[in-house]
């Protein structure tokens, strides 16, 4: 069995992505790692080269900053890496996602288990979404509880929407013409994805958030909707839970350099509506997320 990791990044230092930590964590489960590196100006490419792993292969790309349709640029970059893999499985990890070294062998074992089970087209993982720092995680419906990160190496499986997940299509031509495809049939992993998108210094978080929106919206939208504040307001959140586990080893240095403080005040929780507050109450009481969006169909469980 061969496992091919793939990811993408551009100006990772400028927007404070833990991309080096991400790649290093993934190398534990991958036999090769393909990284599409956009036209960066901050030493991102050089830092990836400096990791010094023979598993890593860099593909140089140029990002079209005029492409502002639904985060499509991210899916395009993911597909560049996907098209370059030659393993039995593709393991996709984004530049702010990590796996824990304690779960690396679990992931490898699950891929071995389902290698010959052709009904399984991918593997879906539960997520830890860190918010405001490294001790709190988002647990409400504003966060996806799980998503597909392992897929079979098939030309018919493509990155979906803004590269959050994947779908399978009748043909490459159908995908290119806008066909919606269908959700993957997947196994549920016992491992987790550690997601650090909202674990940045508030100034870095504001910079990253503003840049991210340029790939979704035009200048008029950005002018009307983006905050003029220099720092990101972490208090604009509905609810959080305490994280009681440990972080991946490759994150330890970054965590030790944390230079900001965020204290969650539940009395300031901001649900988007009374409806979502009620749905969250139901979920906490029963574990059932009513109307949950799932871009996959679980047919096997490793638990």
State the total count of DSSP E strands.
13
**Termini Cα gap:** 22 Å
The tally of structural domains comes to: 1
Q: Low-confidence parts, pLDDT < 50 over ≥5 residues?
A: none
Count of helices? 9
Helix content: 25-40%
Order of helices and strands: EHEHEHEEHEEEEEHEHHEHHE
Second rung of CATH, namely the architecture: Alpha-Beta Complex
Overview of this structure, please?
The chain has 303 residues and is α/β, with parallel strands linked by helices. The protein has a single domain, classed as Spore Coat Polysaccharide Biosynthesis Protein SpsA, Chain A (Alpha-Beta Complex), CATH 3.90.550. It is built from nine helices and 13 strands. A hairpin with a 4-residue loop joins strand 6 and strand 7.
Question: How would the blueprint of this fold be written?
Answer:
Elements lengths: L2 E7 L9 H8 L5 E6 L6 H7 L5 E5 L11 H12 L5 E4 L4 E2 L5 H11 L7 E10 L4 E3 L7 E7 L4 E4 L4 E4 L3 H5 L5 E17 L3 H12 L5 H7 L14 E3 L9 H5 L17 H13 L9 E6 L2
Parallel strand pairs: 1-2, 1-4, 2-3, 6-11, 11-13
Antiparallel strand pairs: 4-8, 5-11, 6-7, 6-8, 7-12, 9-10, 10-11
